[in-house]
Amino acid sequence: MQAANNPLAITFFFVFMSLTLGITYWAAKRTRTTEQFFAAGGQITAWQNGWALAGDFLSAAALLGIAGIITSNGFDGLIYSIGFLVGWPIISFLIVEPLRNLGKFTFADVVAYRLRQRPVRMAAAIGTLTVILLYLIAQMVATGSLIKLLFGLPYTVSVVVVGTAMLTYVIFGGMLATTWVQVIKAVLLSLGGLVLALLVLAHFDMNPLNLFSAAAEKYGTRVLQPGVKVAGSGWDSISLGVGLMFGTAALPHILMRAFTVPDVKEARMSILYATGIIGSFHLLVFVIGFGAMVLVGPEVVTKAGGGGNMAAPLLALTVGGNGFFGFICAVAFATMLAVVAGLTLSGVATVCHDLWVNVVRGGDAPEREQLIVARIATVAIAVLAVFLGIVFEGQNVAFMAGLAFAVAAAANFPALLLSITWKRFTTAGAVASILVGTVSSLLLICLSPTVQVDVLGKSLAAVSQAWWFVPMKNPALICMPLSFLVAVAVSLVTEETGAESSFREMRRRIMFGAARETVAAE
Amino acid sequence: MLSPDKVVLPREGDEFARLSRTRSRIAVALSLMMIAMYFGFMAMFAFAKPTMGTILVPGLSLCILLGAGVIVGSFLLCLVYVVWANRFYDPAVRRIMS
């Protein structure tokens, strides 16, 4: 059942690698300034950026993970499909325009706009790097075990291969190469998902309802009904929802893509396109998940290993034969590469732009120096990602992706929103909010069943007696309001006249920033 | 790329304040609609499981219908905002600038 013995999978894989490395070579010649390295010179079109956003955001979990959860649990898997989309409209209504008009390379540009640069940048870097490292670990470990499963490569080799490829894209091709890797991956993934869903529907007269009824006939109507799998208690579900919605709206690698387009209108359009692409893809996953349930069967999927991740590839084998199976395996691989490249680039932007330029060098450093720092940071993050990927081999790190969303929601979102909407927001308020959001999320998850039961293997009955026990699998419902509260309270007891007096100027730039190039040209 | 302090910003007038208020109102209204839609769905998923499990026609439960509805609704709200911003907001901003 491995793609290693599948010449088509190997061929697809090599075609993808040659294509992306070719693009990296082409992009390297166009990556000479920091503006080009971090934002592709602002020359990406809205359509390209829409696909790249989808490529950045749709991880292997979107196809393999969710399909697997649906196959074994039915409806509950759809909670993730839906949750991964609902943050996008929030980005579009509240975040994208201020971000594009105030920022340069990172969302910390926006938070620090009116506030004191050094403390805000340092705090934002802590929040950002926490999110990125958690997300990277989750991706690297998933990648290692999936490639082992799909291609038969040893785990360590897989992690090193992915780390090397992503390092190559980012260090030489910067944002331009990363964008194209993400565009190609998103197109392949959508195409693969579409063909897979159509092949499934062909067995059911092209009517999804026939597919769902077949699932209900075989496994009972419970598979179409809400269960208790994704969240133990009712409030747990709400907390998961808070993390997914507001976390998506504050993921550093997603926000960073707003700077790659020429103006605010293109940024707005690219979010709309991304929402459409990601939404359509998740609707296809409904069909793929139930398709795998009916046509492959949960028992077969479980037996194939990988915690249900084989549902979609096995479905491809059943409905499309060996060649299609190879294609889906290669697409899964491409998916992982594109996501880790985007994460790494955004970590590099934080280290170079926020920490080096604005904290260490006080806001100004020569271009050459910045690019050297950026490339050193790329190597450091890539090595760290590979190292952590190997350290966490075989560990249960599935919770880390969810935790990354929770930290983004609790640490980044409140500071970002308040900095553009609340005049009285102060440096102390921003720093306290980001730190409290980060630390409380990490602390609460450690005291929750997620770590205590799922990772440490203690019994739920035993830990739930402890005084420190937090009965929620996802901390966002507690930590995000807490972070808002701290931000408001600390801002009210401190005063920052500079921040207040520049509020009007900031509001004007949020509105008129789109035309700054036009104004300057006159 | 030009440095922020060199950017010439237009003077602020009543029209700016009005447009700024309209934009905020629309952004907040759409966000609240989005939040109500999603958390309404999640609250039903969390606390009204039997209702959500109602089978409407063979193969279609209420939760699947509403779930797909949330996905389509999210896109439509985004579309509403983008159409408004492109048709009304951007031209209004340009008018104030000139």
TrEMBL record, chain A:
GO terms for molecular function: acetate transmembrane transporter activity; symporter activity. GO terms for biological process: plasma membrane acetate transport; sodium ion transport. It is found in: Cell membrane. PROSITE patterns: NA_SOLUT_SYMP_1 (PS00456), NA_SOLUT_SYMP_2 (PS00457), NA_SOLUT_SYMP_3 (PS50283). The chain crosses the membrane at residues 6-28, 49-71, 77-96, 123-147, 153-172, 184-204, 238-259, 271-296, 324-351, 372-392, 398-418, 430-451, 475-494. Coiled coil: none annotated. It comes from the Bacteria. InterPro entries: Na/Glc_symporter_sf, Na/solute_symporter, Na/solute_symporter_CS, Sodium:Solute_Symporter. CDD domains: SLC5sbd_u4. Keywords: Cell membrane, Ion transport, Membrane, Sodium, Sodium transport, Symport, Transmembrane, Transmembrane helix, Transport. Gene3D superfamilies: Sodium/glucose cotransporter. One of its GO terms (cellular component) is plasma membrane. It is a multi-pass membrane protein. Its main location: membrane. Belongs to the sodium:solute symporter (SSF) (TC 2.A.21) family. This is Cation acetate symporter. It comes from Methylobacterium brachythecii.
From TrEMBL, chain B:
It comes from Methylobacterium brachythecii. PANTHER family: INNER MEMBRANE PROTEIN YJCH. The keyword Endoplasmic reticulum does not apply. The keyword Transmembrane applies. Pfam families: DUF485. InterPro entries: DUF485, Inner_membrane_assoc. GO terms for cellular component: plasma membrane. The chain crosses the membrane at residues 26-47, 59-84. This is Uncharacterized membrane protein (DUF485 family). Keywords: Membrane, Transmembrane, Transmembrane helix.
